[in-house]
Each structure stands twice: as structure tokens, then as C-alpha cells.
Amino acid sequence: MLTTLSGRFLILTVIFVMLAEVLIFVPSIARYRVDYLTNRMERAQIAALALLGSSEMIDEAVEAELLANAGVLNVVLRRDEMRQLVLSSDLPGPVAKTVDLRDPRTAELIRDALVRFVTPEAEVIRVIAEPAQGGGMQIEAAIDTTDLRNALLTYGLNILWLSLVISAITAVFLFLAVRRLMVIPIRSLVRQMNRYAASPEDGRRIIEPGSRIRELREAETTLQALETQLTANLRQKERLAQLGSAVAKISHDLRNILTTATLLGDRLERVDDPTVKRVAPRIVASLTRAVTLTEGTLAFGRAEEAPPALQMIEAGPFLAELCEDARISIGDAPIVVRHTAPTGLAFRGDPEQLHRVIGNLIRNARQAIQATDAPGEIVISAEETPEAWRIRVSDNGPGLPPRAQENLFQAFQGNVRKGGTGLGLAIARELVQGHGGTLTLERTGEEGTVFLIELPREIAV
Description:
Layout: H1 5-52, H2 60-70, E1 74-79, E2 82-87, E3 95-100, H3 106-118, E4 124-129, E5 138-144, H4 145-198, H5 214-268, H6 274-301, E6 311-314, H7 315-330, E7 335-340, E8 346-349, H8 351-370, E9 376-384, E10 388-395, H9 402-406, H10 423-434, E11 438-445, E12 448-456
Parallel strand pairs: 3-4, 7-9
Antiparallel strand pairs: 1-2, 1-5, 4-5, 6-8, 9-10, 10-12, 11-12
């Protein structure tokens, strides 16, 4: 029952109703005790006035009967500045406490009532009250608390049973109301969600808001918008997947064709015809770009990269190897490639994947500098902080154009040079994210471009 919404409402209703009854019960007990004592004092006053109105002496039997009917042990009446013992009997014990009903305080009445309610021992108390109908200035009476406590217990049990009945009836009605207004609509909403989840591509299973409860209708409306968007995205992804599969097949066949064409283009360069010699390099360059595009498309369309094989890498030798590979690619171009790293620095990563990432950044920097036909410099630096290892690839090239910065890491959109595919940076970021790190463009402008790789020192669990 505790795991269901209606069951919890039922239990909470019983608890809150009982709490309310307790808050009512405590002052009720105090009020009942005051009424009980006041009633005894009024009956004692009547008995005393009846005795004073008689001119004859009464015997002990009549006096005992008057005290028994009044429910008191003795009666003292103060009249005309005189204090007179009107009715009396032997007390079963000493007077334990005096209760003044003339100016009662609520806190004291509640406290005394609770003490009497839980105290089983009988006591004799002295009660002082104002006489009813002005029958004197003050009336006092001694009362045995045995009957008082029995009356309080009877009254308390009646209140308890009444509270239980009220709680049960209230809980049942609230249970039915909550079940009708909340539980049933929520279960219907859950059933609809499960029905949609079984086939999210089916637009007929999108929920139609129909609840008359505002909050539930808002939830249904929001869910409808979410399901509509999800269905549209799934359809789009399915079409893109089919298109990607077709493109991959085309790219595979096209790569073979272009490779053959490239080999034929290489042979054209050996022809002595001046026109052929002038045109052949351009044909070969175009074919090379086409082959690069198809190979990049195939690489990007394959399954996700394998998880990185993490190990500690010495920064100095690793960066030196990258610089040496870059110098071979640069050839005779006036571009300096160097690295800086603190002695003994080591960072954690997959050497093969990081070599691809940094190599791609170096290649982009080299191509950007070569496009200006001016000397340049590429610097790979490494450092460590308490949170991460940082690797920067900096160049003094012309910087990235604003259009390239908008979709820098988006495949087929973030190409930084004419004829590029935009796949290099997209794959590089994916590889760095596989390490739990980030690849960001730290700054770019006329003074050059800086890419930042951050590798976390702590391994996420």
C-alpha cells in the first residue's frame, strides 16, 4: 500500500485526521472537567440552600444523602462575610489540591485535565467557585476524584471511537476521490506512454490531451509536444541512416574509381605535351581531394571509435615525435614546428588516438600558414594543473574565418579551408571526448589560432 499513491493518501488522511482529533481532544477534556466540577458545585449549592432554608435540624442520614446527590464530600458557603460549613462528612484523605473555578487559566486547565486523565490514584481536591444565581459570595466543596477520572475516561473513549469513525469515513471518501481524480488519470497517462514507447515511429500513438484537470492536461499537452518532436526526429534519423548507408556504398565504389583515375593522372604528368603538363597537376590535385573526401566520409560513417587504451605518456618524446612527423610533411616550406613541455611531465591518454588528434590540428595549422605564402610557426605545448593536463596547438597563421567558427566541430560543415570536408575536427573532438576531456578553440584572430585539449586527471567512475 505504501508504494501506491492512493495508499499513501489513505494513510496520510488517517494520520492528519487523528492529529486534528488530538488537537481537539486536549481542550475538550479540559472543558469537560470544568463542566463536571461546575455541575458538582451547582448541585452542592442547591443542597446547601435547601438545608439553610429548613428551620429544623436534619439527621446525618439526610445530610449524607444530600452530599451523595451533590457528588461532594462537604460544602462551605460564604455569605455576609461569614464562612459557614453547611454540609460535611468524613474525608477519605487530606486535601491534595485546590482548584479555583472563578478565574481559570486555559493552560492550567489543560494541564490539570491531562494529569487527572493519566493519574489512576484517587485524591481529594478542594474546589472554589462563584455561587450560581448570586446565592452567596463564594462556595467551596471537597470532591473525590475517583468519579471525575472515570467520567474523563468514558468521555475520552467516546471521543476516540468517534475520531476513528470520522477518520475511517474521511479516509474512504478521500481514497475514492483521489483514485477517481488523480490515480486513474495518471495510470491512463502511463499506459499511453508505454503504448507510445512500444512503437514511437507510429504517429497514431501520440497522445491526445483530454483530461479536465488543468495540471494533468498541461502534462498531456507537454507530452504530446515531446512525442510529436520525437517521432519527427526518429523519422528524420531513419531517413538519414538510409541516406548514410547509400552514401557509404557510393563513396566506397567512388573511391575505387577515383583511385584508378589518380593513377592515370600520375601517368599524364610524364607526358611531354605542354598543355598536358600544365593541366595534369590540377587534375591529380582534384582527384586527390575527391579521394580524401570519400575516405573521410567512410571513416566517419563507421561505428564509434574503440575506447581509448589509457596509459601514462611522457610529454617530451611524444611531442617531439609529432613535430618530426610534421616537419616531414612540411618539406621545404618556411614553417617552424617546435614543442615545449616541463621536464618529466607525463599525461594519461591513448597514444595512437592523441597522435591523430594533435596531428590533425598541426596539419590544419600548416595548411592555414601555407595558404598565406608567408613564413610561420607552429608550437605544441603541454602543462598540468591540479584538475587536468592541457595541450595547446598554436600557430601564427591568419586565423579562422567567422563562418568556419560557427560550425567548427560539425561534420561536413566546419571545414576551415577550401576543399576541406570538416571531418577532421569532428573526429578529433570525438576522440578527446572519449578520454573524458574537451577540445576547444581557445582563441583565433590575425595573430594566430590556438586549440586547447584538456584531459582530466581524475577518471570518472
